[in-house]
Amino acid sequence: MSGSGPVGVGLIGAGNISDQYLGTLTRLPDVRVLFVADIDEARAAAQAEKYGVEGSGSVDELLAVEDIEIVVNLTIPAAHAEVGMRVLAAGKNVWSEKPLALDRESGRALLDEAQRRGLRVSCAPDTFLGPGLQTVRRAVDDGEIGRPLTGLTLFQTGGPERWHPSPDFFYARGGGPLFDMGPYYLTTLIQVFGPVKSVYGLGSTSHETRTIGSGPRAGRP
Ligand SMILES: NC(=O)c1ccc[n+]([C@@H]2O[C@H](COP(=O)([O-])OP(=O)(O)OC[C@H]3O[C@@H](n4cnc5c(N)ncnc54)[C@H](O)[C@@H]3O)[C@@H](O)[C@H]2O)c1
Fold this sequence. Notes:
InterPro entries: Gfo/Idh/MocA-like_OxRdtase_N, Gfo/Idh/MocA_oxidrdct_glycsds, GFO_IDH_MocA-like_dom, NAD(P)-bd_dom_sf. This protein is α/β, with parallel strands linked by helices.
């Protein structure tokens, strides 16, 4: 990062997960959150006020703030690559929520653009940096459990509409368990075992209609 002192951070996407980020980032001495943006500017303003962030408004306004060096992209998955590209075009580094992009091509394009501009792209999940998965990694690297032959991860849930007040994106392109929760499990497997060589998949639809379970739209399909 340039200069010294706290790094300026801007946050795009003031939805459900933004409380987690703002609650943490506004308490860290090494960063200073300067602006919250959303296509819903009233939502951005409400989150900025709640966490004492001085600026809020549109994405363009955020990208014009010179002191912002890292932009945290908390938009819905379908917007991740496009918003990420806009951040890079403004000369800023981007941290994106998962998934990085909806297809390999736009993910690759984002990484290539960052390299071309000498900027950084990083992406959730960072959970493998935590003590649990780092302990696993050390145990495997040090040969403590011998040569692992298989790894198994399992995830089961009835669906996010029971707790998320705006669950639409989970059922749009870029949603679904593989894109939403898969990154956590795949990141773990890749960190411990290395890159993926081949993939097999199988799917089905369990419910034709789903009902929102929380927030102002609770009870609606
Ligand atoms: N909710 C969670 O518990 C959770 C946990 C981990 C990761 N995530 C990830 O965080 C991201 C956001 O999830 P969420 O639950 O906060 O979603 P959300 O729908 O509650 O919020 C998304 C916000 O992004 C805004 N937005 C959408 N497109 C935009 C654009 N082009 N420009 C500016 N703003 C835009 C929307 O107006 C909305 O306020 C997703 O990628 C999700 O996978 C969410």
